[in-house]
Amino acid sequence: MAGMNVVIDPESAVPPFEQVRAQLAHRIADGTLPVGTKLPTVRALAADLSLATNTVARAYRELETAGMIETRGRAGTFVAASGDASRTRVAAAAADYVTTVDRLGVSRDEALAIVTAALRGRA
């Protein structure tokens, strides 16, 4: 499948299901996998990556819970339009953050450092 290119690093401390989830989420978010793109079946992707089907199924479940993909019965699994809605919500949250930062008198540089630390899990 075009744009899939999921690569599993067996030496990584990150569990394989999370590697699959994160890579697909990134490709959906950046538009490499646009809305409506049909994803491989769980079984096919698991075979391609030499993973257990349950591993890929967990990644797909988490992406579906996040609204990034949707399963349409026998038709398959597709990139969901709500992924665009998710980006809209994130942009709105960022705008709210800027308003809060300005109201509290925190510098933009410090606010950016706080966000960067939070995104890197050091908040």
Automatic annotation (TrEMBL):
Q: Which UniProt keywords apply?
A: DNA-binding, Transcription, Transcription regulation
**Which GO MF terms does the UniProt record name?**
DNA binding; DNA-binding transcription factor activity
Q: Which domain of life is it from?
A: Bacteria
What single Pfam family name could you report for this chain, choosing any that match? GntR
> Per the database record, which ranges form the HTH gntR-type domain?
14-82
Name this polypeptide is given = Transcriptional regulator, GntR family
Q: Which species does this protein come from?
A: Nakamurella multipartita (strain ATCC 700099 / DSM 44233 / CIP 104796 / JCM 9543 / NBRC 105858 / Y-104)
